[in-house]
Design brief:
The complex is a heterodimer. Chain A is 64% helix and 5% strand. Chain A has helices spanning 13-51, 68-71, 79-82, 87-105, 113-117, 124-134, 151-157, 163-168, 174-186, 196-199, 214-245, 250-262, 267-281, 289-314, 317-325, 330-358, 362-366, 391-399, 405-435, and strands at residues 56-65, 142-148, 189-193. In chain A, strands 2-1-3 form a 3-stranded antiparallel β-sheet. Chain A is flat. The model of chain A has no long low-confidence stretch (mean pLDDT 87). Chain B is mostly helical. In chain B, a hairpin with a 7-residue loop joins β1 (237-238) and β2. In chain B, α2 (40-77) packs antiparallel against α5, α9 (284-299) packs across α11 (334-359) and α15 (430-438) runs antiparallel to α16 (447-480). The chains are: A mainly alpha, B mainly alpha. At the A-B interface, α1, α11, α12, α13 and α14 of A face α6, α8, α9, α10 and α11 of B.
Chain lengths: 439, 482
């Protein structure tokens, strides 16, 4: 019988193998965590790098002459006559102003009039017309205006468009970009923070430079309002009943199973529900924040119910017993003692549920919120029934458009959305930290 | 009076009732709270409830019944006989549109309120001049019906205001009369509150019922126009709004399952290993840092993942994998959507698995370690087998998420319905087709639109089945160690 000689002082081959396997296994775990982090980092970098441009906007400053002969043929400032001049009547004025500017700077260019005019956004004539109609006195004078530069010029200022890409682009030429360089040197073209991105409404597919999130932010806000007003009381009421009053029987079992299943129903199915019940059956208007809010309420309810029940459960029975002991009724016990103690947990759950609702897109597509909405909805309650957009839907909308300027806008909108989510989640965490109690 | 102003009036009445009820209770007790059965505000609430509840119920009933009754009355004025169902409903909607147009014209002040119901002649031109656009030519019988509808509506609205407010006042008086010092106001109020709470809990059931019924109803319409056998077993998806569509679900299901499979292939190993690392290896410090970061992935809206797929992952896969290998030219592909969805699912797998691994009793680990096995051997041979049912449940839950996911596939997978094995080919899913059939101009009588409901119902049944199985497994497993 010869057994292999082993010693406690040297590790055997088998142990080495087992230890190596141990290290490998641990490395796999670390690698998996690393992969998840890398994916998160890549996701955020990709969105931020393509979207940060949306927060900057290129403007072009011009002195525009406003001749009476063109803008007010009657000479009496009669609105009816002035309104007959459409934006097509205003566009040449801007082009003329730009050419005058170039002449003043002493720049010779082989470009045609139309190509020079293309430096300024297609939204500019409308802005000029609105200004003139609002202030008829300015006719006959020369005024200084700051117009949006066109989408391609904006892209050039942000590095998205280059001389090489302009060669292949039908909408812009390298010569135009040379002009832009000269105007930048002169200070007529500047790039600065884009407040209009948050306040102005969506714009048509031709003018990404003037598209903004105003209507979408307002629409999302309205929907969150509806969710808060409906989901919080209903969710809390349902949880109180299930946690404090419900007898243990088949009915309450069905309700409980139901709620946990609702939490896992695909969001698109809620969209179908909204379309058939709220729009086709109840006759509520399409694209209205009220419908979106109702759908999101139903989606948020399970989240709120689950977190509220956890918060109620965390209140120790001794509190209830003490209240009952000094003669409070069951209802008084719950509303005067248990509910206030559970409030921080409930609020945290509500905020997290609303953050999830804010980012939800699919159900909103089905209830018509993809429609192009340029008008701001009125103030609530009326405004809840006006057509509006929503932040995530606006993102989807912009990704469906051809102009590359919209990709930047979509990413910028995502950053805005993520910012709102971060604020809400941080608020939830702080709330929990500040008010969390352990018994 | 509009329903909204009635509502405000009712609340004002209830507030008055509250004050009166409270005062009366105090008076009946001679100003001493101790002589009362309940606290004074319960008496106030009691009267407010008596004012509000019956009146609100009547208002709700009226809002539901009146339009149906008016439709029935108006239908009598329309010429009988030649109208079949379709033409009839078209005509009724014409009538409604015209009545609505008249309302708006009156609201704008273009037509005097007292003339609107007797106006005749070319109504379309008159409304057009007032800025209210009507679609087609207005037939005289439609105009008469619309005016009848408005007249009945005005009469109904007037009676509604009278009846509801009268009932509220009656309720208020009745509530006040009941009050005396021995009246058990708290018990009544608490019963009402309990009823409210039960109502809130029932909304969950109503939602499920709404989902199932709405889809069942429309799906039945669909199967009346399109054979169910073809829907479930045809391998061709080619909707055509001029008729003669092929609406087979199989290519869509194939795309859905293929993408979900790839997503799980990404999410399950990463999620599981991350969970093992977090629960077995990482110290408490690393854990508090890693766990929230991974859960951030679950908090990111799916539209963000969709954009990520569209902007970054899709072009990347096309330029570096698909084109060099000659597998395809499309940026949107099964692989794109699958990979991105996999990232999204990591936290679903990892958090649940983490919980489940943590629930395995420490004694089992200690026993295994005491026998001399290494940490990884303990995990592989003791902890994981013990946690297996729970982990399977977590994977099933993730699968149900993957199947129901919409935005990532809408933006990343493409729209072409085909059954192919090449993962770099664009394919489509059930959810994508639900979106595309139900957005834009939809005709709720055409099978091409109605098919979306059948797809939705199929999706609902599949995900519900997966969830129920997963929940049962997880619950069973949890009980095992409690």
């Amino acid at each position: 019988m010869s057994r292999p000689k082993t010693s406690l002082y040297t590790t055997s081959a088998r142990t080495k193998k087992r230890n190596a396997a141990e290290r490998r296994f641990r490395a796999y775990g670390l690698f998996a965590v690393g992969l998840a982090m890398a994916a998160l980092a890549m996701l955020l970098t990709s969105i931020f790098s393509s979207g940060s441009g949306a927060f900057q906007q290129t403007y072009i400053t011009l002195d525009v002459e406003l001749p009476e002969a063109k803008l007010d043929k009657s000479g009496t400032r009669d609105m009816a006559v002035m309104k007959k001049v459409s934006t097509f009547g205003y566009a040449p004025l801007i082009t003329k102003a730009l050419m005058a500017k170039l002449e003043e700077m002493g720049i010779e260019t082989p470009l045609k009039k139309k190509q020079i005019g293309a430096l300024v956004s297609k939204a500019a004539p409308a802005k000029l017309r609105d200004f003139v109609l609002a202030n008829p006195d300015v006719i006959g004078t020369t005024q200084r205006f700051e117009f949006l530069a066109s989408g391609r010029i904006d892209g050039y200022m942000k590095g998205r468009v280059t001389h090489e890409s302009a060669e292949r682009d039908g909408k812009i030429s390298p010569e135009q970009l040379d002009l832009v360089d000269a105007l930048v040197a002169d200070g007529a073209i500047v790039k600065r923070f884009n407040w209009a991105f948050f306040t102005s409404p969506d714009a048509s597919g031709q003018r990404p430079e003037s598209a903004g999130l105003g209507v979408a932010i307002l629409g999302s806000l309205y929907m969150m309002l509806v969710v808060l007003v409906l989901a919080l009381p209903i969710g809390v009421g349902a949880s109180i009943y299930l946690e404090e009053f419900a007898p243990k029987n088949r009915w309450t079992d069905i309700i409980e199973v139901n709620i946990s299943n609702l939490a896992a129903v695909p969001s698109i199915v809620f969209g179908i529900l909204g379309l058939t019940i709220f729009i086709n059956f109840a006759g509520l208007p399409q694209s209205a924040p009220i419908v979106g809010g109702l759908v999101l309420t139903l989606m948020t309810l399970p989240t709120i119910v689950i977190s509220t029940r956890a918060a109620l459960k965390a209140v120790p029975p001794s509190i209830r017993e003490a209240a009952l002991g000094i003669g409070a009724s069951k209802m008084q016990t719950v509303f005067h003692h248990v509910l206030p103690l559970a409030a921080p947990g409930i609020l945290t759950g509500t905020i997290i549920g609303m953050a999830r609702a804010l980012g939800e897109t699919a159900p909103l597509l089905l209830i018509g919120m993809v429609a192009f909405v340029k008008e701001f909805p009125a103030a609530p309650l009326e405004g809840l029934f006006d057509p509006a957009s929503a932040l995530p839907v606006q993102v989807y909308n912009w990704t469906q458009r051809a102009d590359p300027g919209f990709v930047e806008r979509a990413s910028g909108a995502i950053i805005t959305l993520l910012l709102f989510l971060v604020i809400m989640n941080v608020a939830a965490v702080l709330l929990r930290r500040r008010f969390e109690r352990r018994w | 009076m509009s329903a909204f102003s009635i509502l405000i009036l009712l609340f004002a009445l209830a507030a008055i009732g509250y004050v009166l009820g409270r005062g009366r209770a105090m008076k009946s007790a001679g100003g001493s709270i101790r002589a009362l059965h309940s606290l004074p505000h319960y008496y106030g609430w009691n009267v407010a409830l008596f004012t509000l509840v019956p009146a609100l119920a009547l208002l709700a009933l009226w809002l539901v019944v009146q339009p149906a009754w008016i439709d029935a009355q108006v239908a009598k004025t329309l010429p009988q006989g030649a109208l079949d169902d379709g033409a009839y409903s078209l005509m009724i909607s014409d009538v409604r549109r015209l009545a609505d147009g008249l309302d708006r014209a009156v609201a704008k002040g273009a037509i005097a309120p007292d003339v609107a119901n007797s106006i005749s002649g070319d109504i379309r031109a008159q409304l057009g001049a007032a800025g209210v656009a009507l679609g087609a030519e207005v037939k005289p019988e439609v105009l008469i019906a619309a005016q009848e509808m408005r007249r009945l509506g005005q009469v109904g609205d007037m009676w509604r205001s009278v009846a509801v407010v009268a009932l509220a006042v009656l309720g208020l008086l009745f509530g006040l009369r009941m009050i005396n010092r021995d009246f058990r106001a708290r018990n009544t109020v608490e019963r009402a509150v309990l009823a409210l709470l039960i109502g809130a809990a029932l909304i969950a059931i109503l939602t499920t019922l709404g989902i199932v019924l709405s889809m069942l109803f429309e799906t039945r319409h669909f199967f009346a126009q399109y054979p169910a056998f073809d829907f479930f077993f045809s391998t061709k998806w080619a909707p055509n709004f001029r008729g003669g569509s092929d609406l087979g679900i199989l290519p869509l299901l194939w795309g859905t399952l293929y993408i979900s499979f790839i997503a799980l292939l990404v999410a399950v190993p990463i999620g599981l290993f991350a969970a093992i690392y977090m629960s077995e290896y990482a110290g408490p410090k690393a854990r508090t840092f890693i766990k929230p970061l991974i859960e951030v992935l679950a908090g990111i809206p799916t539209i963000v993942y969709g954009l990520f797929a569209l902007l970054t992952v899709g072009p990347l896969l096309r330029d570096y994998f698909a084109q060099p290998m000659g597998l395809g030219e499309s940026a949107s592909s099964v692989m794109t959507a699958g990979l991105v969805m996999g990232v999204m699912l990591i936290p679903f797998v990892s958090s649940l698995s983490d919980d489940i691994i943590n629930a395995v009793p420490q004694a089992m680990r200690d026993g295994s370690l005491a026998l001399g096995s290494t940490h990884s051997e303990t995990i592989r041979k003791v902890v994981l087998p013990a946690a297996l049912p729970g982990v399977v449940g977590a994977i099933l839950l993730a699968a149900s998420r993957a199947i129901g996911e919409t935005m990532i596939v809408v933006m990343g997978a493409g729209a072409a319905a085909k059954m192919d094995l090449n993962p770099f080919e664009a394919m489509t899913t059930v959810t994508v087709k639900i979106v595309s059939q139900l957005t834009g101009d939809t005709d709720f009588a055409a099978p091409e639109t109605l098919v979306a409901f059948a797809l939705g119902l199929t999706l609902f049944v599949i995900t519900l089945g997966l969830n129920v199985v997963a929940l049962v497994i997880v619950r069973k497993y949890r009980e095992q160690y409690e």
